[in-house]
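Teaching assistant here, posting this on the class forum so everyone can see the example we discussed in section. The complex has two components, and the goal was to see what a joint structure prediction looks like when all of them are supplied at once.
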Amino acid sequence: MRMPLFTLISIVVAIAVFMVTRLPNIEYLFVAGYTIVQYIVLATAWNILGGYCGYVNFGSAAFFALGAYSTVTLATFGLQVDELVPESLAPYFHLIFPLPIPVLIVIGGIVSGIVGFGTGYLTLRLRGAFFAIATLALSVVLATLVVNWDFVGGSGGAYVVRPGKFPGLGSYMQYLFLLMLGLAVLSVVLARWIERSRLGYGFAAIRDDEMAAEASGVPTLRLKLIATTLSGALMGMAGAPFPYYIGYLAPASAFGLEYAVNSIAMPLIGGTTSWIGPVIGTILLGTLQQVTTVTISSAVNVLLVGVLLIAFVIIAPNGIVGLVQDRLRARRKG
Amino acid sequence: MTALLQVQNLRKRFGGFVALDGINLDVQAGERLGLIGPNGSGKSTLVNCICGTLQNEQGTVHFDGQLMNGLAAHQRTHRGLSRSFQLPRPFPSMTLAENLRIPMLYTVHHRSGTPLHADNIDARCHELLQLVDLEKKARHLPGDLTQVEMRKLELARAMAAEPKLLIADEAMAGLSHAEIEDILALLMRLNQSGITVIMIEHIMTAVMSFSQRLAVLVSGRKIADGKPEDVVRDPEVVRAYLGE
């Protein structure tokens, strides 16, 4: 009964975080909190492929943006139902649209999951830097597609109007924050389950030595496809509510390099072999970024990530979790 | 009776270089076969083609009555073909016990139909580590091991897949005399428990004492196959090793 207990604790922690954030009644806390929690989802998702399997994905922004643009597409469609749908069917569509955000999250997850599967199928023969380059290329290709697609606003971007209030909760921002906390719980519980399952052992074998993994009976291609699909789906789910959060979505913000860089930097700083690593890394780096954004400037963020990454590569190549594990192991031996 | 492993007219090229040129090889169930040949004669390529790490262009590999052509390495492992690597390839981030868990979780688990229980896996891991004299280091990482221990781990992991045929690719290279005796005894015990063993080796004393039959590869061709005493006296084999 250990797994449900962990899920329960995660949910309790998420609710506690929400309640504490509500206490001071400052709207900005939800705005900042949303970004940090969103990165918990992204970093955890990246870690399923990057940390567990050892495949570095530089295209996190692409999967995130796919989720965001799925939402934009459906929201725009909802607004234009009368023009796009035969008159006789329009009333039915009005019943469904606008879609609630949880539904959009599921759709964003499915779209990104499918693209993750496809990308994996095409690129997983590549290893190391070549795989990273291929995923970066995916990001560029998708950004170009979106820029040239007028329906979702093209290069000019698209507006998604966020309702002011959510019944029972107060501001809509609080609702979005709560949804993102739910997603964070989902991704952390999933990551921890993978880690301790047969799947997790297979992933670790792939990361350590793919040829030896095959010789031991691990179906490496199938496992890598599962990883790209799950990882992509979670990133898409993280991106789906984003248009409602930001209000105006432009390709430059959805495909921003900071998503790709942060999704890599956060697990690396925290530690990639365990579910807790990305969470620690995100809370540390994400909070630091929010603080510097307010106190200094948002441009300092990038510098901060760079400096921290270099520092960690030198001091703790296996992240904070790795540092602690090494200490524990040394003590046990000593 | 058909052989456990049947290799027929196997060819493998790397660009213009013909690594294997029409190899035929039968291995009977329960047999101990030694496979020798000078460096670059194609021994490891043959192992890779049999195990699915490489795919052959021509010819067929049958194992246990099934055609192996086109099957991926892991599928062949599931059917009972297991190999150790010439240079040990442990999973460096896992403890020794976890190293052995991988083939159990993915091969034995897959084969038996009924899922293995976690306790069974743990018990089996320790049994295997005991067999190769590594149970004291069950919770260590492979990085802590000596060369001979690494080879033993490599063999233990191949055995953890509960194979019908085990291919030991130079499991003794670089080891001391006593260590070679250790590994030989281990392979002998495995064979007595019913596992067919192909041993690829340069150390002739080991090969001669272990093998019931000896096959010799030279430049991608099999030039001799028979009783070890006869094969080592074969003029063609002598020429391949010592020159004219």
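For the discussion questions: The interface with chain A takes residues 51-53, 72-75, 77-78, 82-83, 85, 89-94, 98, 101-103, 105-107, 109-110, 157-158, 160-161 of chain B (CB under 8 Å). The mean pLDDT of chain B is 91. Think about how each of these relates to the inputs above.
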